[in-house]
Amino acid sequence: MTQVGHEAARALLRRLAVEQAECRIPSVVAAIVRDGRPVWFGGRGSVDGAAPTAATQYRIGSITKSMVAVVVMRLRDEGLLDLTDPLERHLPGTRLGHLTIAQLLSHTAGLTAEPPTAWWERTPGIPAGELLDRLGPGELKHRPGRRFHYSNVGFAVLGELVARLRGTTWLKALRAEVLDPLGMHATTPRPRAPHATGYAVHPWADVVQAEPEHDADAMGPAGQLWSTAHDLARWAAFLGGETAGVLCTQTLAEMREPAGVEDGDTWSGGFGLGLQLARVGGRRLAGHTGSMPGFLATVWSDAAEGVGALFLANTTSGMSGTLLPDLLDLLDRHEPRLPDEWRPVPADPGLLALTGLWHWGPKAYTLRLLPERGLSLEPVGGAGRASRFVPQDDGTWLGLDGYYAGETLRVAADHLDLNTFIFTRTPYDPNAPVPGGAGDWHA
């Protein structure tokens, strides 16, 4: 799996070794993906007397949620549900039927974090029907839509939603629609050899204690799965855009958009639709962390830079929290990514004529032609509203991002009409339909 140079490989392995030694981890594996391919793997510690490999299974906990979310988004793309649908439409009879699917995906439904059962991570689970019967108004801790509140229960409910709409179990649907198409055949609901045993490390002595492992049943969609560094490398590549047709890239980008933030004004951590988000050292990361008794795991992808990183460890707690950003920084330091080569591409003459300087009143904007017939409208100097647009069948253009996301751009002979805002070739062109105050310029 390792394709980086010796100096980079040594620096990456040393950072992993420091993590394992200083955090007292029985075993840990890590990997880096670049441009959709694994380029480095490292392992430290011992599993059954041998060094862990890229084929050694670890429990991945809540990373399971992000995979379940992909199935939900596939259902949306197929027209079988809408993200604004209330739960009642698809799971009739629940006492939480007013919550929407989008709220559950983004942890903004206000639903309690843990189920009204025994400690679900450490005890055998209960069937989905029984869990749904136990969920009532008392499990709502916040007004739906008000704030981010992480909910394991919410993804148990989404797993049952998948089961009902697919007519099978959430796990079989996930296997058929996501895991198998991506080649993630070593990702399973229960451990298979070779796998690490989950341990708790004593806080004041260098001894360990085995942690329990059970079938979580209804809570399985919140954190049941086991996986390997090999499989999670494929998942990191998927999150970066190598979707292999499992999900369209526009839907994946939608999942990466922030829907709620964990830490208020600082906005260093948040959540999209089933994906955890983080801003670290100038990077914008999407993926998920995972924690179950005896195990910690994380997978992050930086889609803008085409890189991803992951780790799997068999310890209940105690890791630094900076391992993956540090690994990505080391890769950049020792083997910075080369920019893609620029190449000319054919341009539609009609679109080419639209490019150049436009004005919103007195403010100057540039219109650039993008690959795939897209347009980019950006203010000169950088301050202001910028958006990209894609063509529609009716001759209009649809905003993709920024202030004008979802809005319509219409192109006329002498002006642009962007949701009633008029852009002209010269400031306040008197020949264009500029409403109000378009008179002569004077000193």
UniProtKB/TrEMBL annotation:
Per UniProt, the keywords (alphabetical) are:
Hydrolase
A molecular function (GO) term:
hydrolase activity
One Pfam match, given by its short name, reads: DUF7586
InterPro entries of this UniProt entry? Answer: AmpC-like (IPR050491), Beta-lactam-related (IPR001466), Beta-lactam/transpept-like (IPR012338), DUF7586 (IPR056008)
Q: Does the keyword Disulfide bond apply?
A: no
Q: Where in the numbering of this chain does the Beta-lactamase-related domain appear?
A: 20-322
Could you identify this protein by its name?
Serine hydrolase
Which organism encodes this protein? [Actinomadura] parvosata subsp. kistnae
